[in-house]
Design brief:
This protein is mainly alpha-helical and about 160 residues long. Helix content is about 75%, strand content about 0%. The termini are far apart.
Length: about 160
């Protein structure tokens, strides 16, 4: 599965600049927001990118409950990718309850898939951690094999130099 990501044009923005963008997305059309973004930051961002970003922002806001700190679009992307998000923003039990509340109103397979990604976040994050550990072990084993192979070649070269088979 392809990893989700935020638009690179928005990656360098500070929290204040993102808050300003969110305010503009709430008040103006995408065309006007795009124009204001270019005037403010000197970077052109596509309307489709703004639309996708806004959809993620609204979904993250919708997933939060009153007792939970607000999720950001970056947090939602991390949840979809199974990567870590700051613990103070993710209360797994509250998030799971919210998903269960929302699943009754699901009208499409795409929405169900997105809720499933949120519901299985902890398992996918643990799986990603295990895969990272396995990859580290594989690299360590490759290094050991290469080291052993070098030692075997050095021993053969030494035997040939001594004249013993």
């Amino acid at each position: 599965m392809r990893k989700c990501s935020l638009p690179p044009e928005l990656a360098a923005l500070s929290d204040e600049q993102l808050a300003q963008l969110h305010h503009r997305l709430d008040r103006f059309t995408y065309d006007k927001t795009q124009e204001l973004f270019f005037q403010t930051h000197g970077v052109i961002i596509g309307i489709v990118k703004l639309c996708r970003y806004n959809q993620r922002r609204l979904k993250a806001r919708f997933l939060c409950t009153a007792g939970q700190p607000a999720l950001t679009p970056a947090d939602l992307v991390a949840i979809h990718n199974g990567t870590s998000i700051p613990d103070e923003r993710s209360n797994s039990q509250l998030l799971q309850r919210r998903v269960l509340d929302l699943v009754h109103g699901v009208k499409s397979a795409y929405e169900l898939r997105e809720l499933h990604q949120v519901a299985t976040y902890e398992q996918r994050r643990a799986l990603a951690g295990r895969q990272l550990e396995l990859e580290r072990r594989r690299a360590e084993n490759r290094s050991r094999r290469a080291n052993l192979r070098e030692r075997e070649l050095a021993l053969r070269a030494l035997r040939v130099a001594e004249g013993t088979p």
